[in-house]
Design brief:
By secondary structure, this protein is mainly α. It is built from 13 helices and four strands.
Length: about 290
């Protein structure tokens, strides 16, 4: 029943009074099914009137895992007829970020990938972003924050590593294994050498990386600088976040693509180099057709 749902969402303070109000107003069994945006829901009369008027026009916006701020703001802009420049500017606005309760320099990593429904009449870019960030807080709840503390990571560090995993993993069953590799390398103070961080800093990507790309002087270059980069490189999904918090138990330190979306994981540099040679052989054969 709709009264149960409204009570669950803390819109109703007294379910029985709401049911009585719908009967007195002659609207019992006349509330249509659908998605509703309730504004100014101060009393039962106003709530019932808004429900009976029917569904407002809604716009669906889907944000994908691994998208950057630029891709997210462009998707919202094209669907909602809002300025992508204003949306992007807000993603780097220190005061706005503080209002959202985040300890980060930008919203990169916190624009949670999901499908959102917005009112067609919604024209406040701040409200749009607040709804998306609210979803992030729903996912990264107190339990996950506590788990991050247990493994010695901040929320921003978890999201940062998750964003790298998002760029590496194609299949979900590899996410926790890749996460373990990064955890293992961090513990040994090894360079992460994560290709997605290089893709993030090159200006003409994504593309096949060159040796010269690995020498770009940037704090995001994990081939030059130890530890995690300063912040997320994309907006990761829940699977990658959970992979960081609950990694696989292994001793792997290296992995290389196999050419089929999966990776070969190894513990020594000798094994890793052999796996790379095998992948290069597969690539050459594929190029010959």
């Amino acid at each position: 029943q709709i009264s149960d749902l409204l009570t669950e969402k803390n819109i109703l303070t007294n379910k029985n009074m709401f049911i009585t109000a719908t009967r007195l107003m002659g609207y019992n069994n006349k509330i249509p099914a659908g998605i509703f945006a309730l504004k100014d829901a101060k009393n039962n009369y106003r709530i019932v009137r808004q429900l009976v008027r029917g569904n407002p026009e809604m716009i669906k916006v889907t944000l994908l895992e691994g998208w950057t701020i630029s891709q997210v703001t462009q998707a919202i802009s094209s669907s909602m007829n809002l300025s992508s420049e204003i949306l992007s500017s807000l993603c780097y606005d220190e005061q706005f970020i503080n209002e959202l309760g985040l300890e980060t320099k930008s919203l990169e990593g916190y624009l949670y990938p999901d499908t959102y429904l917005f009112l067609e009449s919604e024209n406040d870019p701040k409200e749009i972003l607040k709804q998306i960030i609210s979803e992030f807080h729903e996912v990264f709840n107190d339990n996950l924050i506590e788990r991050a503390k247990q493994i010695g990571l901040t929320v921003n560090e978890v999201v940062t590593m998750a964003s790298i995993i998002e760029g590496e993993a194609i299949y979900d069953n590899e996410r926790t294994i890749i996460a373990a590799v990064y955890h293992n390398r961090l513990k040994k103070r090894m360079l992460l050498q994560a290709d997605p961080t290089i893709q993030y800093i090159i200006k003409d990507g994504p593309r096949r990386l060159r040796l010269s790309d690995l020498k770009i002087d940037s704090p995001y270059n994990t081939y030059l600088y130890r530890g995690l980069p300063p912040g997320p490189i994309s907006n990761p999904g829940k699977a990658s976040i959970l992979a960081v918090l609950y990694p696989d138990d292994n001793n792997y330190l290296f992995f290389v693509a196999r050419g089929d979306g999966y990776h070969t994981f190894t513990t020594t540099i000798e094994e890793h180099n052999q796996a790379k040679r095998e992948f290069q052989k597969v690539r050459r054969l594929a190029a010959k057709g």
